[in-house]
Amino acid sequence: MIVMKFGGSSVANSERIRHVAGIIQNFSDRKPVVVLSAMGDTTDDLLDAADAALSGKVTIDAIEKLHKDTSAALGIPVDGIEKLLGELRTLLTGVSMLRELSPRSKDYLVSFGERLSVRIMAAYLSSQGTPAVFYDAWDIGFFSDSNYTNAELLPDVQENIRASLGPYAEGRAGASTAIPVVTGFIAKDKNGFITTLGRGGSDLTATVIGSALMAEEVQTWKDVNGILTADPRIVKTAQTVPVATYDEVAELAYFGSQVLHPRSMQPCIQTGTPVRVKNSYNIDAPGSIIVTESETELPPVRSITTKKNVTLIDIVSTRMLGQYGFLAKVFDIFAAHNISVDVVATSEVSVSLTVDSKKADFSALTKDLGKYASIEIKKHKAIVTVICDVSRSSSILAVTFEALAREKINIQMISQGASKVNISLICESNEAERVVRLLHDCYFGADGKTPCSFS
Ligand code: ASP
Ligand code: MG
């Protein structure tokens, strides 16, 4: 069996849904389980509708029109959809009256996107002679903790999925043969409240199903030709990465690439389930395949990504020179403030680290850190992450710093991740894109120029 996951832009309108239904039908003899995101930008539109409701205005016109027009164009009945749209309107009315939206209500609200899209796809496939049945993820056992907007799945989820979809996947006698079409992104907590797995969470839904059912592969269908050597909006000549490892992709996702949900590699790491990234707009492109370990030797650098809006914090111990426990103290303080640290570099008495600028209340943090150390906060920085084979780091760093020095770009901190696949450089935010382009030209060549040679 296989899992086929389609992102929002792959199911953005009736034409795209027809096209994707065709792709699913082509794979129908491989027992696909389909996972869908919300249509197009519906998740963002729902969040905008929530903001409008908070200021007293209830409007779901655009969302309603998209889903009704799509159903009409596909010639499928709208009753199921109308019921959900009615529930959504009631919810937004409640928000507008209370002028209040808790994380729990927010998850309930955005869940409508995926719940609408699976109903449309299952009805359309069935109308085309390919029986399909929709599931809200909890119907097949997706339960999570109550960390609304970024929930963690509970350990029994995989067992639940095997109990509900195992018979279909194994083609057991008497089992339904209708293709399951499952909502990505959402789950329920033990109290029955709807949760979400974080933006882009449908990837995680797909990989959890894939590893639970020991899928031959998990296909994630996007609107790009797979994993790319850089963001194509920054680097016009970005190329597809044919093969990458789970570790590399997890780091890429964490450090700003939108290609897959950061936690989505975890289930497949455990079972070794390959993940294939394909372009639903360009079916013939080979895409990327993500595996435990490549069978052929890979080039030293896989991809470059950047994360802007980070703050660099330099912490120099004033009182703890030569004493132990300094780092422990520092990280305790970050933990107490619920601030997650991305990149770290240390020396005997100092530590430099980066945090997401949006997430930190620096005044409270500085006050606490100030009891033990002198603090310097440097805003408007960016992390440029090179996903590479760190066992070749000397030669990669030599090539990198030569290219940067030639352009007189100063790097303020550097860190080599323990994952063995990541070298991160901190630079000024307004120089980040230039750094990415420069390094991309250097590693992969540009405009007929040959790439730098790694020793
Ligand atoms: N629809 C959700 C989002 O836009 C989940 C997903 O697409 O994976 O984040
Ligand atoms: Mg989406």
Sum this structure up briefly:
The chain has 455 residues and is α/β, with parallel strands linked by helices. It has helices spanning 14-26, 42-54, 61-74, 79-98, 103-127, 157-170, 202-212, 246-254, 265-271, 326-336, 362-369, 393-406, 432-444; strands spanning 2-6, 32-36, 132-135, 143-144, 179-183, 186-189, 194-196, 217-222, 243-245, 275-279, 288-291, 301-317, 341-346, 350-356, 373-388, 413-416, 422-428. A hairpin with a 3-residue loop joins strand 13 and strand 14.
Q: Any overview of this molecule?
A:
- The protein is α/β, with parallel strands linked by helices and 455 residues long.
- The protein has 2 domains: 2-222, 3-Layer(aba) Sandwich (Carbamate kinase); 302-444, VC0802-like.
- 38% of the residues lie in helices and 23% in strands.
- α3 packs parallel to α5 (103-127) and α12 packs across α13.
- The chain is globular.
- The model has no long low-confidence stretch (mean pLDDT 93).
- The structure holds aspartic acid and magnesium ion.
- Magnesium ion binds at residues 8, 37-38, 43.
What order do the helices and strands come in, and which of them pair?
Elements: E1 2-6, H1 14-26, E2 32-36, H2 42-54, H3 61-74, H4 79-98, H5 103-127, E3 132-135, E4 143-144, H6 157-170, E5 179-183, E6 186-189, E7 194-196, H7 202-212, E8 217-222, E9 243-245, H8 246-254, H9 265-271, E10 275-279, E11 288-291, E12 301-317, H10 326-336, E13 341-346, E14 350-356, H11 362-369, E15 373-388, H12 393-406, E16 413-416, E17 422-428, H13 432-444
Parallel strand pairs: 1-2, 1-8, 2-5, 3-5, 4-6, 8-10, 9-11
Antiparallel strand pairs: 6-7, 10-11, 12-14, 12-15, 13-14, 15-17, 16-17
Helix pairs in contact: 2-4, 2-5, 3-5, 4-5, 6-7, 7-9, 8-9, 12-13
